[in-house]
Every structure is written in structure tokens, then in C-alpha cells.
Amino acid sequence: MSKKNPIKVKKWISWKKAKLFPEIDPISKEHYAALVKEVTTKKIKLSGEEHQYTDKGVPLFSDNTVIKKSYRGWGRLMAEIWSIEDGANYDYMDFYMGKGSDVCLK
């Protein structure tokens, strides 16, 4: 996408619906930046389990691509983002399973 139309998280969808869209792997800088902006602005802290098993756990981007990760892979992403944002030293296990989110995605 161009600078005029930067990548954004359009909405959050289920793992099942995410199968209908191309998966980003590896994650581009633009998609990573969009994910960081989305989760930090909305204070979203999803666990890997929530990422895979809730109706709104997978980010769908404005270019109609998704990020789908294992529990560990998603946990690593959240730990990386929130360690910087919170000034903490999170590990992937902090976001591996269970309820990781401080907010309910609507």
C-alpha cells in the first residue's frame, strides 16, 4: 500500500473466517506497524488461545490479509509489543494461553 493508503487493521475476525484470506508470513514492517498501532491504541492484549479460539482474535488488514500464528508465535508478538509499551519484560508465556485481553473486542 502507498503512503496515501497505509495498511490498517480493518477489523478482527475468527480463525475460521481468516482461512478465507491470504496469510502474511513473514510479517511486513507495514503490517507490524498497523498491528502495534491497533493493539496499543485499543489496549488489546490477546493470548494465543484467544487469537485462535475467539470470534475476534485475528486481525484483518485493509489489504485483505491476515496474521495467523501459533499460541507461541502470537504470544511472542504480544510480548514484544507490550514489553515496549508497558516498559516491562514480558515473555511469550505471558500471552500464551488464557485471558490476556484487558478489553473486549467489539
Number of strands: 2
Q: Please list the strands of the largest sheet in the order they lie side by side.
A: 1-2
Residue fraction in strands: 5-15%
**In percent, how helical is the residue content?**
25-40%
What is the first-to-last residue Cα distance? Answer: 26 Å
Given helix and strand content, the structural type is mainly alpha
The succession of helices and strands, N to C, reads EHHHEH
Q: Are there runs of 5+ residues with pLDDT below 50, and where?
A: 101-106
* Shape, principal axes of CA atoms: globular
- If you average the pLDDT, what whole number results? 90
Q: What oligomerization state is this entry in?
A: single chain
- Number of continuous helical runs: 4
Provide the number of structural domains.
Answer: 1
Report the sheet with the most strands, covering strand number, pairing sense and barrel closure: 2 strands, antiparallel
Give the tags.
106 residues; globular; 2 strands; disordered C terminus; mainly alpha; two-stranded antiparallel ribbon
How is the topology of this model organized?
Blueprint: E1 9-13, H1 15-18, H2 29-41, H3 48-53, E2 58-61, H4 71-86
Antiparallel strand pairs: 1-2
Can you give a write-up of this model?
- The protein is mostly helical and 106 residues long.
- It has one domain (14-95).
- It has helices at 15-18, 29-41, 48-53, 71-86, and strands at residues 9-13, 58-61.
